[in-house]
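Q: I'm a student working through a structural biology exercise. My instructor gave each of us a protein and asked us to get a predicted structure, then write a short paragraph describing it. Mine is Engulfment and cell motility protein 2 isoform X3. I'm not confident about reading structure output yet, so if you can add a plain explanation after the tokens, that would really help. Here is the sequence I was given:
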Amino acid sequence: MPPPSDIVKVAIEWPGANAQLMEIDQKKPLSSIIREVCDGWSLSGSEQFALRYADGPQLYITEQSRSEIKNGTILRLAISPARAARQLLDRIQSHGIDTRLEALKELAKLSADPTFATEFISMEGIGTLARLVESGTHFGEMLAFTLTAFLELMDHGIVSWDLISLSFIKQIAGYVNQPMVDVSILQRSLAILESMVLNSHSLYHRVAQEITVGQLIGHLQVSNQEIQTYAIALINALFLKAPEDRRQEMASTLAQKHLRSIILNHVIRGNRPIKAEMAHQLYVLQVLTFNLLEERMMTKMDPSDQAQRDIIFELRRIAFDGENDPSGTEKRKAMYTKDYKMLGFTNHVNPAMDFTQTPPGMLALDNMLYLAKLHQDTYIRIVLENSSREDKHECPFGRCAIELTRMLCEILQVGELPNEGCNDYHPMFFTHDRAWEEFFCVCIQLLNKTWKEMRATAEDFNKVMQVVREQITRTLAMKPSSLDQLKGKLRGLSYSEILRLRQSERMSQDDFQSPPIIELRERIQPEILELIKQQRLNRLCEGSCFRKLGNRRRQEKFWFCRLSLNHKVLHYGDLDESPQGEVPFELLTDKIPVSDIKSVVTGKDCPHMKEKSALKQNKEVLEQAFSILYDPDENLNFVAPNKYEYCIWTDGLCALLGREMGSDLTRSDLDTLISMEMKLRLLDLENITIPEAPPPVPKEPSTYNFTYNYG
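A: Happy to help. First, here is the predicted structure for Engulfment and cell motility protein 2 isoform X3. I'll explain a few features afterward.
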């Protein structure tokens, strides 16, 4: 007879004694269980003790968290959080250096525990640590442990960052500004400053006074990628929280300090692979840089503003006059209408009206002027080439440039906040100081080329723009490393190639509507679904690494989950860092019997998402969240690292529970594999010759061993 669900079997350790094997009744108060444990070792004062996990983060067990104890867990009897906090607080203020160092080392480890942190903070522990830093008497390891403990304690959100003193900020900033400082101290100092900026508006101004972007750029030229990551993260935080009028000034400073070329040469083209957190910070910097275009994108042109109108006159002059002739400008205004028509503006009389819609607003005019001045030969060729075509086939440069600018803003999400968890940076945007404008110049030439290839007319304008969007998005997905590589890849994606790709994709998803084919499809579908099911379950057996949601990304925790080879148990456990391959079952200390799983929920129905806000930066987290609900009333919460892993795991869990797999990935795989199998079988039919002998034994149904390379 199985034990009651309220009973868990554990081992409990105590230094210098044999472990106790116990059955814990989860209905009993935790204090009663601790008393029983203390009695087993003849320890008095059970209220001075607590239980902690022996493995992993070794967190304290509370009434709220005790439900997470599983059969076979190894626990450890330890002094209570309050007692540990009091002892450590006394020891870190002792005169003995060795005693203080050991205490700070233990404190740095315990501070990640929310139960301990609450007790330590209630004893004014954060103030004590701040004073130790402000005194300037701690160095080396001692200072590193002090800063680690301080950061861990503050990350619990129990006290406000606004309470931090100016002298503490100056001391931390001093460590960042020092030319030679211990790596661990520098790393933690950068992280503390980043948290200050992100969590307090008033502290942003104080930090901005103590730290300049120029000082941070020096930390990007080191060989340690962790330091580089923290430095870019702080630059991003200062950028993100800066008032709008300060951001352009910061951007100018970054340009003067050659931030882009330093990142390109020391980070992107360095001799080390880019880690996930660095990729995220590069993506954030890319987004924040492009967001500087938002003001121009949302600024309408004022048709009565002569300075703005002069830009349009300059476009006309470069294309048609060859040299400036301001004295004749007024006399020739009547002739401008014809020129504006050849330039491709919608409003030939007053082209300023073409720039009154936002987006793209004045940003489109900025792009056109950049092309006309910096790539004058290209600009003149495009305009004159189209003005000499038959009317019905001319490509309207002005209209195309405006619509292309709008499209590029949508593709690169100009004006949107960075998404948490997104690593989608493009190396080529770090290869040029005017990357946005150069990107536009490449794309407007692509548009003109595609227009000619399609032999388009004015009525085909939207169709051309759709093809150009597809050419650009497909090429961006290839992550070209430079603008020259972008041009080469775009040349390979001609209109005919897009048609071929579309046809190929359409054929692979074609249902072939004739009755015999429909019947064949229905006969094939169950075996293909079973194949997909097995692939999903195999992936669950290999397992995946997941990131724990927390306040700080670079101090993030990881955990791993995988299905047992007999498909009966889910094993999981915490990891110190993201693994490079498969994690052995022995290292995964927790498990859930599949028979205990009641259901799988996703998105906003997940317990860990119900408290999450619907802010933009949480959107992707929400879309990739899922939870396993299991007996008695417990849950295991996941946030998949990407959409592919989300589909694999939710489909795999549904297959495990005998439910229908319904993700977009499964539908896509089903269509693709059925089409492949049908084509093979139809090909066999086409090659049949009528034999004189009895027909051969039919071939076994085709099977596929397929893997994915999901970007």
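A: Here are two points you could use in your paragraph. The two ends are 49 Å apart (CA to CA). The chain has a mean pLDDT of 87. It's a good idea to check both against the output above yourself.
Q: Great, thank you!
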